[in-house]
Design brief:
binds adenosine-5'-diphosphate, alpha/beta, globular, binds alpha-D-glucopyranose, Rossmann fold, 18 strands, 495 residues, single chain, 6-stranded parallel beta sheet, 9-stranded mixed beta sheet
Length: 495
C-alpha cells in the first residue's frame, strides 16, 4: 500500500500544535504497519534547512505542471514550482518538499498570511498532492493520498477534477484535526484556483459567498476521518459542526474517528532528556524531584505538598482556559499552585500575567512556546488542566497520563475518550485516570478541582490513580492499523 501523507507541519522540524506531533509520528507508524509511505510538505524555512540537505542525488527534482491548478502569475513565482526529493532526518522517510521559495520560504508561523496569498499557497499544496496522486512521479504513484486539515483541502478536489484516462487515480482520505479552522478566502480567489465555475456553488466549495478549503476536502475526499470517535459524532451536530454539520451528515457513512496516539519515544518520563531524574510507574516517587525542580525554575515556593496544576496550551477560545483564569485565586486559596505555558489571545495572556502578579510564588506564567518547559511541566505538575470547550483529540492529556500528571478535563471530544473520571465506582474498579467535568462552567470546574484536592490528600489513593494513568497506552501502532484498514477499504487490490 503506497501512501502519500500530506502535511504542513512536522515535528521536530516545525510544529504549531498537535498536528505537528501527529505528522511526525503517524507516517513512521504507517511504515511499521507495512505501508510504503512518503511525505509531502511545503518548503517552509525549517523544512528547507532540516530536510533539503538530505536531498536524494539519484532522484531529481520534479517540476509541477502549471497549466491547470492555481494561477501563480503575479504572485512573484518566476520559477516553475518543483518537488525536491529528500529523506526525513530521523525516520529516513522519503519526502517531497514543495520548493517554491517565493511562497514558502518565509519566517514565522507557517499559516501567517503576511503577503495575502495564503489561498494560492495552500492551493498549490493541494495541487502538488493531486499531481502525485495522479502519477506525476513516474517512479512512485501512491494508492492513497492522506490529507490533513484545511491547508490540504484542495487535494481531494483537484484529484477528482483532474481524473484522466490511464492508471486509476489515488484514493483520498481527509483528516479533520480541527473543524473550527476552515481556510476561508474571499470569492476573488476562486478564479485563481483553476477550477470550473460550477464548483463555486453550495454543492461545491462555496461557503456563505466565500471559498472554503475545508469544505473542498469534505466534499471531495473518498473518506473523511477525524481524530477521536466522540469528535466524529460531535461534528455531525449543529453545536460543533461549525456550519458544515449538514454536509458531514450527508456523508456520515464516510466519516470515522481514529484516536491519535502518543510518540512514546518523545513523551516518556523514563527517558526524557529534559529530566534530571527520570522516573516511571514503578518509581513515581521520583516525580517529587521533577516538581521541586519545576518550582525552583519558575520561582514558585518550594512546597513539596502543594498541588501543582499545569497548563501547556494555545491560549485560544477553544481551550476553555478562561475558566481556569477565573478560578486562579480560589485555586491558590485552596493551597494549590498554578503553572501556565502558552501563547495566544492577548486578553487571556494578560489575565494570566495579572494572576501571576497577584500571587507571586504560587502562580507562574510563561507566555511563549517552549518545548523543553512543556516536558518539565508534564513531569513536575500533579494535575494537567485541559478544560477545552471542544477538543478533537487533544494530546496534552495523553502526555499528562504518561507522566503521572493526572488530567482534569471537560467531557468533550477526545478528552471524553481518553480520561476515566475518578468516581467512587471507577476508583474501586481501579480504572480511574483523572478528573472529568460535564458542564462547561466555572462551578463545574470548581467541583472537579475540589475532588482532585480531596483525593490528593489521600496519598495511597493518589498513588494508585497515578499508577493506573501511567499504565495507559495510546500507541500509534493501534491507530496505524485502523488507517491501513481504511485505506484497504478503498484500495483492496493495492500491494
Ligand atoms: P492543539 O493541537 O489543539 O493545540 P493538542 O493537545 O493536540 O492541542 O497538541 C498541543 C501540542 O502543542 C502538544 O504537543 C503541546 O505540548 C504543545 N504545546 C502547546 N502550547 C505549547 C507551548 N506554549 N509551548 C510548548 N508546547 C506547546
Ligand atoms: C488539533 C486539535 C487537537 C488534536 C490535534 C492533533 O489541533 O485541536 O485536539 O489533538 O489537532 O490531531
Amino acid at each position: 500500500m503506497r501512501v502519500l501523507y500530506v502535511c504542513t507541519e512536522l515535528f521536530p522540524l516545525l510544529k504549531t500544535g498537535g498536528l505537528g506531533d501527529v505528522s511526525g509520528a503517524l507516517p513512521p507508524a504507517l511504515r511499521d504497519a507495512g505501508c510504503d509511505v512518503r511525505v509531502l510538505v511545503p518548503g517552509f524555512p525549517a523544512i528547507r534547512s532540516g530536510v533539503l540537505p538530505s536531498k536524494l542525488q539519484q532522484a531529481p527534482a520534479i517540476s509541477l505542471p502549471t497549466r491547470y491548478g492555481p494561477d501563480l502569475a503575479g504572485r512573484g513565482v518566476t520559477q516553475p514550482p518543483v518537488l525536491q526529493q529528500a529523506s526525513l532526518p530521523g525516520s529516513g522517510l522519503a519526502t517531497y518538499v514543495l520548493d517554491v521559495p517565493a511562497l514558502f520560504n518565509r519566517p514565522g508561523n507557517p499559516y501567517y498570511d503576511s503577503h495575502g496569498d495564503n489561498g494560492v499557497r495552500f492551493a498549490l499544496v493541494g495541487w502538488a498532492a493531486a499531481c502525485l496522486g495522479q502519477g506525476l512521479d513516474a517512479q512512485w504513484q501512491p494508492d492513497v493520498v492522506h490529507c490533513n486539515d484545511w491547508h490540504t483541502g484542495l487535494a481531494p478536489l483537484y484529484l477528482r477534477q483532474m481524473a484522466m484516462p490511464g492508471p486509476p487515480r489515488a484514493a483520498s482520505v481527509f483528516t479533520i484535526h480541527n473543524l473550527a479552522y476552515q481556510g476561508i478566502f474571499p470569492r476573488s480567489l476562486f478564479p485563481e484556483l483553476g477550477l470550473p465555475d460550477y464548483l463555486f456553488t453550495i454543492g461545491g466549495i462555496e461557503f456563505w459567498g466565500q471559498v472554503s478549503f475545508m469544505k473542498a476536502g469534505l466534499q471531495a475526499a473518498d473518506r473523511i476521518t477525524t481524530v477521536s470517535p466522540t469528535y466524529a459524532r460531535e461534528i455531525l451536530e449543529v453545536e460543533q459542526g461549525c456550519g458544515l454539520d449538514g454536509l458531514l451528515r450527508g456523508r456520515s457513512s464516510m466519516v470515522s474517528g481514529i484516536l491519535n496516539g502518543v510518540d512514546y519515544r518523545v513523551w516518556s518520563p523514563s527517558h526524557d532528556e529534559v529530566l534530571a531524574h527520570p522516573y516511571d510507574a514503578e518509581s513515581v516517587e521520583l516525580k517529587a524531584q521533577a516538581k521541586a525542580e519545576l518550582q525552583r525554575k519558575l520561582k514558585l515556593q518550594a512546597r513539596p505538598n502543594a498541588m501543582v496544576f499545569g497548563v501547556v496550551s494555545r491560549l485560544t477560545e477553544q481551550k476553555g482556559l478562561n475558566l481556569v483564569e477565573a478560578m486562579a485565586d480560589e485555586l491558590v486559596q485552596m493551597g494549590g499552585q498554578l503553572v501556565v505555558l502558552g501563547t495566544g489571545d492577548a486578553p487571556l495572556e494578560h489575565a494570566f500575567v495579572r494572576a501571576a502578579a497577584r500571587h507571586p510564588g504560587q502562580i507562574a506564567v510563561d507566555i511563549g512556546y517552549d518545548e523543553a518547559l512543556a516536558h518539565a511541566i508534564m513531569a513536575g505538575c500533579d494535575v494537567i488542566l485541559v478544560p477545552s470547550r471542544f477538543e478533537p483529540c487533544g494530546l496534552t492529556q495523553l502526555y499528562g497520563l504518561r507522566y503521572g500528571a493526572l488530567p482534569l478535563v471537560h467531557r468533550v471530544g477526545g478528552l471524553a475518550d481518553t480520561v476515566v473520571d475518578a468516581t467512587p465506582d471507577n476508583l474501586n474498579a481501579g480504572r480511574a485516570t483523572g478528573f472529568v467535568f460535564d458542564e462547561f462552567s466555572a462551578p463545574a470546574l470548581r467541583g472537579a478541582l475540589k475532588r482532585a484536592f480531596e483525593l490528593h490528600a489521600q496519598p495511597a489513593a493518589w498513588a494508585k490513580l497515578q499508577k493506573t494513568a501511567m499504565q495507559q497506552r495510546f500507541d500509534w501502532r493501534e491507530a496505524a492499523i485502523q488507517y491501513v484498514a481504511l485505506y484497504r477499504s478503498m484500495k483492496p487490490e493495492a500491494a
